[in-house]
Amino acid sequence: MSTGRAIRTLGLVHLYRTEGYDVAALSGVDLVVGAGEVVGLLGPSGSGKSTLLALLGGLFRPSAGKIFVGDHELSALGPAALDAFLARETSLMLQGAQRNLVPYLSVRENVVFAQEAARRLGADVVGVGDTLALVGATGFADERPAHLSQGQLQRAALAVAMAPRPGVLLADEPTSALDRSARDQVLDAVLRVNAELGTTVVLVTHDPDVARRLPRTVTIRDGRIGGEGRSGEEYAVVTADGFVPLPAAVRESLPPGTLLHFEQDGGRWVVVPEVRGEEPGPG
Ligand SMILES: Nc1ncnc2c1ncn2[C@@H]1O[C@H](COP(=O)(O)OP(=O)(O)OP(=O)(O)O)[C@@H](O)[C@H]1O
Predict the structure, then answer these.
(1) 112-139 pLDDT tens trace
(2) Could you tell me the residue ranges of all domains in the chain?
(3) Transmembrane segments in this chain: where (predicted)?
(4) Measuring from atom 25 of ligand 1, which residue has the nearest CA?
(5) Is 162 in contact with 189 (CB distance < 8 Å)?
(6) What is the ipTM metric for this complex?
(7) Of 42, 136, 172, 178, which one is least surrounded by beta carbons within 10 A?
(8) 220, 226 Cβ separation under 8 angstroms
(9) pTM to 2 decimals?
(10) Cβ contacts of residue 216 below 8 Å, gap of 6+?
(11) Closest ligand 1 atom number to CA of residue 220
(12) Which residues line ligand 1 (CB under 6 A)?
């Protein structure tokens, strides 16, 4: 049985360097995901979700900041040690299930292929049949990707991701473009992986129905953490440098430049906007 690994990022910044200008995809993300937790990453298109997931999966290194998976800081590992660590501990399901599968191999052969690659890098892998059964892929294990539905492709990609029994599963929109029944089957499979193996899961989604089934969601906005949802309750999150992004509804009623008082009321903090006209005049 695999043991989920905790994830922690500190001041994560990522710039894409393109010809002529740089794009700041992440501008300081401090995120803690507990071992064995399931977290959904939400946010508008272009807010930085895929970039965050790719950095957690070691696809590329951050421009600044640190990433810890379990006790290891990824940027402190050299290339060979990083490859071996990621092969054992972290699986990244890329957006678009087919990108995770070898097209001329059956689902079973894809899982065997992934296991062999992981074993060469030191992973302790278990039987293929168990992995296929875990994600509900036994019934189409001998089919090639071209013969599978979109939902089956996602479960096949999940089987490949789980082949090395990683401590962390990262999934980029595994339920997008699926009908409701296929979406529920994929989400059920991901949640079963978490429940049975204790794998830590971070999953990007745009789907409010998927988000509602997750115990915790983190919203990325403009490359930062813009808020969190816990069992349906929405929260603002204080960043490591003391900033609090205002929820969208609050922002609409507080234009830029609004002055705020923070007043203590028993055990609570109350935020009181300065009423216009009460500012002290000159002299
Ligand atoms: N390879 C790249 N080169 C240059 N800019 C990029 C690259 N990849 C992403 N970006 C930019 O970085 C920002 C964050 O992109 P990212 O794909 O992480 O967002 P996202 O929240 O996952 O979006 P979506 O929901 O549309 O997938 C965007 O402004 C995007 O245009």
Answers:
(1) 999 998 888 877 777 899 999 999 999 9
(2) 7-235
(3) none
(4) 45
(5) no
(6) 0.97
(7) 136
(8) yes
(9) 0.91
(10) 37, 38, 39, 40, 228, 229, 230
(11) 21
(12) 16, 18, 23, 25, 43, 45-51
